Amino acid sequence: MSEQEKKQATQAEPETAVQPETKQPEAEAADSTPAEKKGEEAKEEKAPKTEKEKKDWFGKKNRENEALKAKAEAAEAKAAELKNQLLRTAAEYDNYRKRSAREADQKFNDGVSHAVTQILGILDTLDMAANADCADENYKKGVMMTLDKADKALQTLNITEIEALGKAFDPNFMNAVQQVPPEEGQESGTVVRVFQKGYKIGDKIIRHATVVVAE
């Protein structure tokens, strides 16, 4: 074949157009996103298909529910225990407070009793001076004023005189040093005379009253 024939044959061949390659979008290439895959996996987990899978799934849920129930019961028991412990502590504190208050009152009363005991002799002397015959009215008035002030001071300290005269004899509060025949209108066992006054602070006896009792 001559050169001219070759050129004619080459020109006669059709030109093939080269098409540019196109890339598929990644979104289309991928079947689904990771989030969609997770959702599908969760659906598969939540919705088991076979009977064995259903049985395993329900068994797992029952175990989880039992575990949660056990935790709740343990928490309730712990709360009840703490509540009881708190109540016991509060009760113990209240008992301690009351006991401490009683002990403090007792110590105070003991101290007051000891102090008053030291001055009762002085009050006895003033009382005898007030009841003695005296021509000096100013002197007697001064003694009476002193006794009144002493009585107010004793009341401030919660110290009271034991009532004895005309009362039935009570060995818890009185000491009988003599018995005398009853006078008209007096009942047997009645205190007819007080030799020495008795005093108490609250229910505590500081000194018993010394009395004379009708037979």
Task: Describe it.
This protein is α+β, with helices and mostly antiparallel strands and 215 residues long. It has a domain of 56 residues: Roll (Nucleotide Exchange Factor Grpe, Chain A, domain 2). It is 60% helix and 13% strand. It contains 5 helices and 6 strands, in the order H-H-H-H-H-E-E-E-E-E-E. The protein has a 3-stranded antiparallel sheet with strand order 1-4-5. Strands 2-6-3 form a 3-stranded mixed sheet, with no helix packed on it. Strand 4 and strand 5 form a beta hairpin. Helix 4 packs antiparallel against helix 5. The longest helix is centred in the middle third of the chain and has 81 residues. The protein is rod-shaped, with a radius of gyration of 56 Å. It starts with a helix and ends with a strand. About 10% of the residues have low confidence.
List descriptors.
alpha+beta, three-stranded mixed sheet, 5 helices
Low-confidence stretches: 12-32
The number of strands is 6
Overall pLDDT score: 79
Task: Give me the oligomer status.
Answer: single chain
Query: In the CATH hierarchy, what is the class of the domain at 160-215?
Result: Mainly Beta
First-last Cα distance? 180 Å
The largest pleated sheet is described as: 3 strands, antiparallel
Q: Indicate the structural class.
A: alpha+beta
Q: What is the general shape?
A: rod-shaped
Helix-strand blueprint:
Layout: H1 3-12, H2 26-29, H3 34-46, H4 51-131, H5 137-156, E1 159-161, E2 174-180, E3 191-196, E4 199-201, E5 204-207, E6 209-214
Parallel strand pairs: 2-6
Antiparallel strand pairs: 1-4, 3-6, 4-5
Helix pairs in contact: 4-5
